[in-house]
């Protein structure tokens, strides 16, 4: 394991078995102002992280001794390391490895042959998202980072994620979907239920939504009576499946037991089916499709 000192900045651990690629990625990170540690196999990655926790792990999936998937499993099972974001490196056409890596908890991926601009953007975006997560876990800017009632992401996190995921979808030519779930009669219920309305309506709604989405999906409380689900790598057909599953889950009569049943509206929009220029336009398209 080698560590290169640079000016004070985020520490990035770069892992690649190929000396040329390892040097290339390390020099790129250093040029961007990051401090760099390097590792040439999966075991060295874990050793390095045990000594000094990095801000981000940039790791080739095809590592010797222990491959990237095995490293990911260990990291995500460790309470002290699971929050370290992982940017996975795969071959350009290796869709299976990318999907498997994302399912195991990788935050994003880059492909070989490397494109300097792509790596720069992925590093910056992942570190920006992690800064928001860290602020939440440290109790800083809690109101802006995590909804205190539901522990879902907030509107500020949603806008960051929309920008990040849409840029990624355009870059890779992959689909992206956005689903919005809204309590259409929230104000009416509030006039009858009073201050208990959020706990009786919003909290069970959030709990049900969390139980029905994948680990790679993202849930945000985007308004007092509304949630947004961001669905990476999901086309229109996949979004329809999610919407149907949400509708089915919310139809459970026991979900809102003890309250007047809320009227829930669900709608989705998908890129590239929607003619949108950015992630926020995609979100607005989904919201505009809501009934009620």
C-alpha Rg (nearest Å): 21 Å
Which sequence of strands runs across the widest sheet? 1-3-2-4-5-6
User: What string gives the helices and strands in order?
Assistant: EEHEHEHEHEHHHEHHEEHEH
Largest sheet: 6 strands, mixed
- The chain-level structural class is alpha/beta
Please identify the top-level CATH class of the largest domain: Alpha Beta
Number of strands: 10
Poorly predicted ranges? 2-8
Total domains, how many?
2
List keywords for this structure.
six-stranded mixed sheet, 10 strands, disordered N terminus, 2 domains, alpha/beta, four-stranded antiparallel sheet, 292 residues, Alpha-Beta Plaits, Rossmann fold, 20% strand, single chain
Can you give a write-up of this model?
It contains eleven helices and ten strands. It is α/β, with parallel strands linked by helices. The protein has two domains: 2-137, Rossmann fold; 146-288, Alpha-Beta Plaits (2-Layer Sandwich). The strands form two sheets. It has a six-stranded mixed beta sheet with strand order 1-3-2-4-5-6, sandwiched between helices. Strand 2, helix 1 and strand 3 (35-39) form a beta-alpha-beta unit. It starts with a strand and ends with a helix. Residues 2-8 have low confidence and may be disordered.
